[in-house]
Amino acid sequence: MAEIIFTDDNFGEEVLKSDVPVLVDFFAEWCGPCKMLGPIVEELTGEYEGKVKIGKLDVDASPTVAGKYGVQSIPTLIFFKGGEAVDKLMGFQSKEALKAKLDAL
């Protein structure tokens, strides 16, 4: 399954109304740590297919959602469950740290 691209326009439908937990990777094209995190997030997309929806949101292209959730530094990863933000990680994260958070959902 390909990674989903979240935007200001589809965020409500794709994230807040999702039947499964969602991991949103807030990133920007120019962000070095975001580029390092990208392959890890892509691997997790395959591993958690059907269990967790995983996608990216470009903070430059969708500033409204980023602002609503107080994203001030990137990468920021926010975990949603039942339409609510339940956890947040900032900065580069290891695959193991992300798996632990996903498994806790």
What does this structure look like?
The chain is an alpha/beta fold and 105 residues long. The chain contains four helices and five strands; from the N terminus they run βαβαβαββα. A five-stranded mixed sheet has the order 1-3-2-4-5. The protein starts with a strand and ends with a helix. Strand 2, helix 2 (32-47) and strand 3 form a beta-alpha-beta unit. The radius of gyration is 12 Å and the shape is globular. The model has no long low-confidence stretch (mean pLDDT 95).
How much of the sequence lies in strands comes to 25-35%
User: Order of strands across the biggest sheet?
Assistant: 1-3-2-4-5
What is the CATH superfamily? Glutaredoxin
Care to count the β-strands? 5
If you compute it from the alpha carbons, what radius of gyration comes out, rounded to the nearest whole angstrom? 12 Å
Element-level helix/strand string: EHEHEHEEH
Shape: globular
Mean pLDDT: 95
Compact description:
The protein has 105 residues and is an alpha/beta fold. Helix content is 36%, strand content 27%. Strand 2, helix 2 and strand 3 form a beta-alpha-beta unit.
